């Protein structure tokens, strides 16, 4: 799209004209003053409040959008801006030259730079306006009783819950570092309740769609009369304006200064490069004065350092709800297991470990760093028990296999890191074969170890890292677990 500038307003042009510009070229975007008598569309208000959308995202004609702009209700922002001579994507924050490309654009009739990093949310180029809302926010009516949840928090959860409430009121940043199985969702409930009661808009964001799907019914149950928008790729709630939003971090790219509090769950679940754009999205989705709560079991090294140095405000929940310590990983050297697998064998101690579980009937998860090696191991193990299965990210039967494991139809499940987090089986042991592989970072290993001993009836579980040479990541993972247990004992959160 191109714009002409007339009477201090931008006027969209459908075709190339010499006196029109791409939005990126316009030095200052003029914003007409709000006309209080303008009969604005409630539907556009719902769709656009707190958002930054492309024209293609909005199911309304351009004329209607333009009349809202001319009356001050809609804003146009640059999709791409230049910092000096370098382009920056205003939606995802991309400044990396390599992640921009150029194409001959039919919308502006010129060669047009576009951002490759956020292209999955629709193309942002030099002629793309980001469309937002400048009118009043939609009205929210609150029910008499906001929260229906009346469960009890553990002592550790209570401390964190109070901090979350405080951070939301004081519009602060706060990290909740909760061990796997501490019950971090409940820790948010009091904070969400007070925020909603004060007519604040709140968002829980997480990198993974699975988590959005799992959290949505839990939050709807805890806040039954509050409208909840559940956002992920292909979700039908996309245009729903709600006081409580649960979204994948990707979906946050469509928000702009929307939320009084953003709760970012599992920030560490993706590699840093991806994380960077998602963090940008989270920051942009916040109102300029707002709270930000980070929730994780495994903060990255930089954050851990900042916590230790007193540079980051945080609370730990070092113990699980059931007051038993976290299982501490054992290290077991297994020689060149890859070479042995190529020859159709498994290391003797790995085989022994697996046979012990099959004989005693204890279920187990066995992690492998790569699919081909896991697939080499599968037929060998099926000779011991034909019900053994293997899963990985692209496995079309992934859900069914996890379900079968839950139903105890599968005694042993081989897996890649896809099951490192999110899944809970009540009574399992866990092994990693090839724990020295680079894919097994400190955070991945802590998460994997965190699969064991989660249920109060089975609080113990064996965690064994089989390796061909110990790595720093293995040592750091074990240290983190030991430190948390120690802190849990010290604070009286673990029974010994
Ligand atoms: Zn971008
Ligand atoms: Zn263009």
Automatic annotation (TrEMBL):
Q: Which PROSITE patterns match?
A: HELICASE_ATP_BIND_1 (PS51192), HELICASE_CTER (PS51194)
Q: Does the keyword Ribosomal protein apply?
A: no
**Annotated Gene3D superfamilies:** P-loop containing nucleotide triphosphate hydrolases
Q: Which PANTHER family match?
A: COMF OPERON PROTEIN 1, PRIMOSOMAL PROTEIN N
Q: Name one Pfam family in it.
A: Helicase_C
Q: Where is the Helicase C-terminal domain?
A: 350-496
Q: Which residues form the Helicase ATP-binding domain?
A: 165-317
- Name its GO BP terms in alphabetical order: DNA recombination; DNA replication initiation; double-strand break repair
List GO molecular-function terms, semicolon-separated: 3'-5' DNA helicase activity; ATP binding; DNA binding; hydrolase activity
Its lineage reads: Bacteria, Bacillati, Bacillota, Bacilli, Bacillales
> What keywords are annotated for this sequence in UniProt?
ATP-binding, DNA-binding, Helicase, Hydrolase, Nucleotide-binding
Quote the protein name from its UniProt record.
DEAD/DEAH box helicase
Is Lyase one of the keywords UniProt gives this record?
no
Q: What SUPFAM superfamilies has UniProt attached to this entry?
A: P-loop containing nucleoside triphosphate hydrolases
């Amino acid at each position: 799209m191109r714009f002409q500038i007339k009477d201090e307003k931008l006027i969209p042009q459908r075709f190339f004209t010499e006196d029109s510009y791409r939005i990126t070229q316009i030095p200052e975007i003029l914003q007409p003053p709000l006309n209080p008598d303008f009969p604005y569309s409630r539907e556009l208000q719902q769709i656009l409040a707190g958002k930054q959308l492309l024209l293609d995202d909005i199911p309304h004609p351009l004329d209607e959008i333009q009349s809202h702009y001319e009356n001050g209700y809609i804003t146009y922002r640059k999709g791409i801006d230049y910092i000096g001579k370098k382009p920056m994507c205003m939606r995802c924050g991309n400044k990396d030259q390599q992640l921009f490309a150029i194409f001959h654009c039919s919308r502006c009739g010129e060669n047009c730079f576009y951002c490759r990093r956020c292209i999955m949310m629709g193309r942002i180029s030099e002629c793309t306006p980001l469309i937002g809302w400048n009118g009043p926010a939609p009205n929210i009516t609150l029910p008499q009783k906001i929260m229906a949840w009346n469960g009890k928090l553990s002592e550790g959860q209570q401390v964190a819950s109070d901090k979350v409430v405080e951070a939301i009121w004081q519009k602060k940043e706060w990290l909740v570092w909760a061990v796997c199985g501490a019950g971090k969702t409940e820790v948010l409930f009091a904070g969400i309740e007070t925020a909603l009661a004060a007519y604040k808009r709140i968002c829980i964001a997480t990198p993974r769609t699975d988590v959005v799907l799992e959290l949505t019914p839990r939050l709807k149950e805890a806040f039954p009369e509050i409208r909840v928008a559940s956002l992920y790729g292909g979700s039908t709630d996309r245009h729903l304006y709600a006081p409580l939003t649960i979204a994948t971090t990707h979906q946050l790219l469509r928000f702009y200064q929307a939320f009084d509090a953003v709760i970012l769950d599992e920030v560490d679940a993706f590699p840093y490069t991806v994380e960077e754009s998602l963090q940008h999205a989270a920051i942009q989705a916040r109102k300029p004065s707002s709270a930000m709560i980070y929730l994780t079991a495994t903060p990255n090294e930089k954050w851990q350092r900042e916590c230790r140095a007193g540079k980051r405000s945080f609370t730990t929940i070092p113990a699980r709800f059931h007051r038993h310590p976290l299982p501490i990983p054992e290290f077991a050297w297994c020689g060149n297991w890859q070479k042995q697998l190529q020859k159709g064998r498994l290391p003797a101690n790995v085989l022994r470990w697996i046979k012990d579980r099959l004989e005693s009937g204890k279920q187990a998860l066995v992690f492998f760093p790569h699919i081909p090696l896991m697939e080499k191991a599968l037929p060998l193990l099926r000779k011991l028990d034909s019900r053994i299965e293997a899963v990985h990210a692209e496995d079309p039967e992934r859900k069914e296999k996890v379900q079968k494991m839950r139903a105890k139809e599968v005694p042993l499940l081989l897996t890649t890191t896809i099951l490192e987090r999110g899944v809970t089986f009540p009574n399992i042991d866990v092994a990693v074969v090839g724990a020295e592989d680079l894919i097994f970072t400190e955070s991945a290993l802590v998460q994997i170890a965190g699969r064991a001993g989660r249920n109060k009836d089975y609080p113990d579980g064996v965690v064994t890292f089989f390796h061909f040479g110990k790595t720093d990541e293995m040592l750091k993972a074990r240290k983190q677990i030991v430190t948390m247990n120690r802190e849990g004992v010290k604070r009286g959160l673990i029974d010994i």
